[in-house]
Amino acid sequence: MTLSVDIRKRMGEFLLDVRFEAENEVLALLGSSGCGKSVTLKCVAGVMAPDEGRIVLDGRVLFDSREGIDLAPQERGVGLLFQNYALFPNMTVAGNILSVLRRERRDRRREKLAALLETFYLQGLESHYPSQLSGGQQQRVALARILASEPGLIMLDEPLSALDSYLRWQLETELVRLLERFEGTTLYVSHNRSEVYRICRRVCVMHQGLSEPVCDVAALFERPGTLAAALLSGCKNYSRTERIDTHTVLAMDWGIPLTCGAAVPEDARYIGVRAHYFSLCDGPGENAFVCAVQRVAEDVFETILTVRPKTAEPGRTTANIRIERPKEAVRGIREGDEVWVAVRPKDVMPLRH
Amino acid sequence: MDLFPLYNSLRVAAISTVITFFTGIAAAYYIAKTPRVVKGVLDCVLTLPMVLPPTVVGFFLLKTIGPLGPVGSRVLELFGAKLVMVWYSAIFATTIVTFPLMYRTVRGAFEAFDETLLYSGQTLGLSNTYLFWRVMMPNCKQGILAGTVLAFARALGEYGATTMVTGYIPGRTATISTTVYQLWREGNDILAYKWVAINLIISAAVLVAVNMLENRYRQPRSAAKDILSDEEGVGVP
Q1: pLDDT tens, A157-213?
Q2: Which of A86, A130, A193 faces B233 most closely, judged by CB atoms?
Q3: SS3 of A302, please?
Q4: Which residue, A69, A156, A313, B85, shows the most beta carbons closer than 10 Å to its own?
Q5: Residue B93: strand, helix, or coil
Q6: Helix, strand, coil share of chain A (percent; to 5)
Q7: Does B114 contact A90 at a Cβ distance shorter than 8 Å?
Q8: Domains identified in chain B and CATH numbers
Q9: Do the Cβ atoms of A82 and B119 come within 8 Å?
């Protein structure tokens, strides 16, 4: 099972240009809201048409602007789980699932319904209406309904973002279990990096309508490559840079030279450092610099320090550095203090624009 | 007391309501899909009868379906049938006047309808016909019923355009509204009051029906879920 997508669509000022391939896997589309993730899914599902490009699922051409192919959504065999689950409010749980099975023979229909109700823990809820169900139950009905249509591809549009955090964790666990039973390709759209990190192996980052090459989730977090990917992967500190040599850059916003573990590409315009990778040190050393502490904020399990390098470009707000350390590591530090901050060369990530 | 006007009014209103029911829904459905400019123009044209004086509608109608009008003369020639001054002339008048009520109410309901329900149905392999009748219509039931009842009530009360195309022929074209006018002109207050009472009862019943429909469907629907903000990733640096 493979999915190959290569489409472009213009919507006013916004240009969507997406390219990725997915194997028999759970591929994540990661991007902030408004980056075109949902539109991409709708184009693959066939409820929206791209201006040009090609979409192929398992060798079947779903859309090809050059050959004039544009299959109706009904013919595509693509399941799309909407953010609001889109259950038919006028039908019961059983009615929702049976609507998809209505072309089956009567006995097969009963059998399939029973099997789906069991798999998705919906027994006893058959005659409930969607408005009588919890968010989690609604999601299970929606998934059951999608699987009833036997799709070759399942697409999940922010399936967990409408839930509060406790329920979300429960549902995520269930979702992962259910996805494991599905044999086709799954596209998992999210703006939440942690979710993607836990659920998917590979990820395609989207930024302002453009997709970046698909990469391993682990690689995205270790070497994000671009500023957009770094920010999406949760990197909180970045600075414009000037490349000095293969392993050294000048972080312009911070006014300090930094050594990078990895070779700095010619076209690197930024460096990023994750908030957990800055540490406090006693004095000068490699990649160490002196900062003024601007704010000390106690979080649940750690302390967040906002510091500003003494050499920072005046007036530049992005020059502030966010450091997250275990509480005991920074005990006694107060606002206005002067501290030495260091980062290991391997934790300095050169980034392209 | 001759009850013909009651019978005639109900018959005219019922038939024109059936016509506006289908044409109004079809117009609302297809016009919602047209580009914005086309939609604006059609919307304006189709709503005009609601704001025009009924006499203007009647005037246009007479000029079209009258014995000398382009449509009226053709029908007279082909079928030997008159389109004005007969009982069914009122159907043309009431249909045109009530159409915008149906069209606008249904269009409002269609616009409020969550399109993702159609999208998800399509991706599940359900035909557009099935989705229209089994998903869209039931979920827009309130607006459609309200539009129908309003159209019926308006058809029952139509006077201006009706009187111009049907005149007042007792036992042939008389409706409640034209009868009340005629009785008042004759100074027959007692009979006029009776018809006024009948009209009041019917109108009140219709309004009660509309209110009951509105209350019945104003149940709390599952509120649109707000997208919760990105939770800070604990455990991933």
Answers
A1: 988 877 777 778 888 888 888 888 888 899 999 988 888 888 898 999 898 888 988
A2: A193
A3: strand
A4: A156
A5: helix
A6: 30, 35, 35
A7: no
A8: 4-230 (1.10.3720.10)
A9: yes
